[in-house]
Amino acid sequence: MYICVCKGVTDRDIHSAVQQGAERMRDLRICLGVAGECGACACHVKMALDKSRQLTPSPEPAGGS
Question: Which of 11, 17, 25, 36 has a Cα at 20 to 30 A from 55?
């Protein structure tokens, strides 16, 4: 589903960005350009970000035993 019509960003695009390391709205703004034009999508982007973060496992800390 399209989340940001201005930039043509879908929920799948947001999920992929989270899998590649995006953790905050700022990260999505930088890599996808969301919420930068009219800003109407900001609340929907945040919801998609939160949902994707819940579905994406956190990386293991380096050097753990």
Answer: 36
